Amino acid sequence: RGAYTGVIAHWLHTREPEKKETTKVKRRRKTTKPKEPEAKQGDYLIGTDENVLVLNRTYANRSNAERAAKMNWERLQRGVASFSLQLAEGRADLYTEMPVKVTGFKQPIDDASWTITTLTHTVNPDSGFTTSIELEVKIDDLNIE
């Protein structure tokens, strides 16, 4: 999952614009620039081309292919690193999607920005109020081009 360096989405534009009949009008029309036709087919790459995930679906146009490639790239990046914690004392102030900084682990873990993905609060007679947290690496610094 973390070994992919990019995503490729294929697209093929098959819909041809239909020609419309022109009618003559006495008033003066605004001149508009002729619309450049979209390319008929192509590939869209996000990330680098070293080890790419190729989406097996062919999309209807470039914008749909671009959107699918970005979505899959972000999904791949989200699952790169995750871990869970069980807090001895519950923390009711925590919520999902909250940015978190951790300390007391290895340096790369402490340096990373994390996001809470799953949060479970538990109350029982033996251990009282506890909180279980699942974290993933925050991908807000992801460079999508």
Automatic annotation (TrEMBL):
Pfam (any one): Phage_GPD
Taxonomic superkingdom: Bacteria
Basic and acidic residues composition-biased segments: 15-24
Chain positions covered by the region annotation Disordered: 15-43
Protein name (Swiss-Prot/TrEMBL): Phage late control D family protein
Source organism per UniProt: Klebsiella pneumoniae
High-level lineage: Bacteria, Pseudomonadati, Pseudomonadota, Gammaproteobacteria, Enterobacterales
